[in-house]
Amino acid sequence: KNQVEQSPQSLIILEGKNCTLQCNYTVSPFSNLRWYKQDTGRGPVSLTIMTFSENTKSNGRYTATLDADTKQSSLHITASQLSDSASYICVVSPTNAGGTSYGKLTFGQGTILTVHP
Amino acid sequence: KAGVTQTPRYLIKTRGQQVTLSCSPISGHRSVSWYQQTPGQGLQFLFEYFSETQRNKGNFPGRFSGRQFSNSRSEMNVSTLELGDSALYLCASSLTDYGYTFGSGTRLTVV
To answer: Which of A105, B14, B97, B105 could form a disulfide with B90 if both were Cys (CB 3.0 to 4.6 A apart)?
Structure first.
């Protein structure tokens, strides 16, 4: 079972509307949780990074929240644009005895967002 | 500053051949990680290098190997290619565990 589950798998919205993507994780302990945006055939681009002690982080029209008690995170996109059409990936960085993941990130399967005019 | 550079962008190989992919990290970043992305499995961790040493490894067969040079550039090699190795291969460089910057990837197609 994947330790990072995202929902929905896909989402279609109209331009200008808001949407919220969900991420449930069981990775523990972890040092930080990231949301990435990935355009088709390109590498993921970081949107937000939150440590386990942070509750919210914003980056323009993107706002991420983190609830460490329920092990849930969400990414809220405001006033969507056509260019927001992409896959959004939730990534958790687990910690080991050395205090770092040494690159062994745990990825969700992603939510494919399509914004229609 | 320049981002993470991966070459080549696209590659077509035949089953049984071997392939080498290259990754140049952001200047000053000494950690380079490699990932495989497929539609079925999503993103999976291959290995991580820091100062020319492999610090961590994922669950991939020995056909997948890598190395890092003194200038932090890294290469990944896949020997005896199989059809299932077709994927987008991504590398990421980082200064600390707090931030990973990905390259645009190399799209490998095995025929």
So the answer is: B105
